[in-house]
Amino acid sequence: MATMRSTRRPKTEKEGLGRTASVDSIKSNQDESNANRLGKTILKPADQEQLTEAELNEEFTRILNANNPRAAQNISRYNFKEKAYKTIPNAEHHVLHFENDGYFILNEEGKFDGIIGGQTLTTVVSNSQIPKIDSSEKKSAPNNEEVDENGEAVVEVKKATTKNQFNYSDRAAQSINHPFKDRSTNTEPPPQKTFSASVTQWEIYDSYIEDEIAKEKIAKEKAKAVGGEKVKGAKEESKINTLPTEAHNEDVMSRQELAKSFRILERMANQNTYEDVAQDYKYWEDASDEFREGKGTLLPLWTFNCEVDKRKQVTAVAWNYQYKDFFAVGYGSYDFMRQGPGMIACFSLKNPSHPEFIYQTDSGVMSLDFHKQDPSMIVAGFYDGSVCVFDLKRKSSNAIYQSDSREGKHTEPVWQVMWGPEDLDGNTNFYSVSSDGRVTQWTLVKNELLYTDIIKLDLVSGLQEDQDELFGFASASCISFCPNIDHLFVVGTEEGKIHKCSKTYHNEYLASFEGHNMNVYALKYNPFSSRCFLSASADWTVKLWDHDSSKAALTFDLSSSVGDVCWSPYSSTVFAACTADGKVFVFDLNENKYEPLCEQQITKKSKLTHLAFNPNEPILLVGDDKGTVTSLKLSPNLRKRRRASDDAPENERIEKIVDIALGLNVNK
């Protein structure tokens, strides 16, 4: 095996880092060494430039440094401690040009072995390391030594067998690979069962009682097994732990707390069910109104039905004046051949699925009204001529006041009732009109209902001298009181006439208006003006009147029988009407005196009977002859507020329109 040695001569002053050397001496030394090494003669080209002695003796400075020119500069790395990128100041200039792994391993005696991979290595041994032997030993010793060129003996050292955990050999073996097998199982799925149950207060109570009884039985059995003395102790302990039992005589379903809880749960469920409708009720605005000047739409919201009796017609609709989401609906029939029991249902916009209150009546409900100051009081008029007063605060479904034949009961259907202001004694009173020709004032005095006939309508201009003649009276169908003059009111009749009356005059009319040819179904005074009122009739027309003029100011032909009409609570020039062909019309006299801003089909197979504006919100309720009440929201064009430049009061706006229509002087 060949050995490698390296000899190094001592450095001269001209060598080393930062030292200078003569260029010609360096070049000549290199050329001579190369020529001697290769055994060749140096041939110089003929055209080689000849340098002068001064140029050849010129010294050049060569500086060597340990910097790596290829090392990256300005390295930035992210510092997680400071949470920012930082520049690394010192780059790594160390370059590894050659690397060779050693082959010596450490033996058990702590010395290096020259054995690796089962091979014997040749070690160079100096003469000083060879032990001295005698001449006799030299003769007997085999001549196995070799001498190298330097005179040193080369001894072949054989490695003794040692136990080393790193000295191992690789062996290969062939074994059989077990084949893969697919195995699958089929099991029956566990049976499933849907279970539902309810937990109530009394069920929890009964469960505790049963558990105590079971514990008592176990205690008795243990006491019998032990002895008689422990039986007594077990009995005493069971008496102490046993809860007192109570008889469940009270009907739990009739408790007020349970009913309130059910009502809250029902409203929560309906809120989730009708969430999109509730969002429209609060925030919907028809964006197309900006591009349709003078036109508007009605958005249908909730529909209200009473499941108790679907064969009834909606005969009355009234909003509560204090609770803006609460209203009452009267159910009856306008067909005298299909009369039967009636019903009053009170709904809330928060619970459109079921009424909050239901009152069953013996006769069909024809009219109803909420009290303005006391929101729990409802007055209703019936087909049999009776009137009743209900109080929503009371748990009983019976009326607190009811008229009978001995207390001035009407002999014909009561078509309209309405609350009036309190009298001088502070008693609550209301008014009713009936087909028997009587306009009656009813007063609530303690537990008694007193009546007073304000006027009896006559078929002719003057009243009949014979008061006992029944057929001499006109059939009243509707009534409306002047908002600013308490004693003044107008009454509509089935003959088509409208009479202006006063509570201070019981025997004559103040004025009569002849403009309709058929039954007058509705009369409504303007809430902002004491002069103007509307009338709706079966002759397909709606008329606007000034009670100081016998001529109608404006007439609107709706091409169908008009069931009801009402003014809006936010503008003196806006009103709505419903017809028998299922349409709702909304007019704004300030925008257009001849055409409606909205004419929309609400139902196709039913007749619209009544409608009512919400006192606070732009919501309109419409009832039909199928027992359904539909809530509608007005678009922005149908509920425009008056302009800021218009300083005229609401009453002057409608009165100016009426004066122009009648041809009166409006510059007064």
Automatic annotation (TrEMBL):
Residues 1-41, 130-152, 168-196 are annotated as: Disordered. WD repeats lie at residues 513-555. It is found in: Cytoplasm, Cytoskeleton, Cilium axoneme. GO terms for cellular component: microtubule; outer dynein arm. Keywords: Cell projection, Cytoplasm, Cytoskeleton, Dynein, Microtubule, Motor protein, Repeat, WD repeat. It comes from the Eukaryota. It holds the Pfam family WD40. Residues 22-36, 168-177 have a biased composition (Polar residues). One of its GO terms (biological process) is outer dynein arm assembly. GO terms for molecular function: dynein heavy chain binding; dynein light chain binding. InterPro entries: Dynein_IC, WD40/YVTN_repeat-like_dom_sf, WD40_repeat_dom_sf, WD40_rpt. Belongs to the dynein intermediate chain family. This is WD40 repeat-like protein.
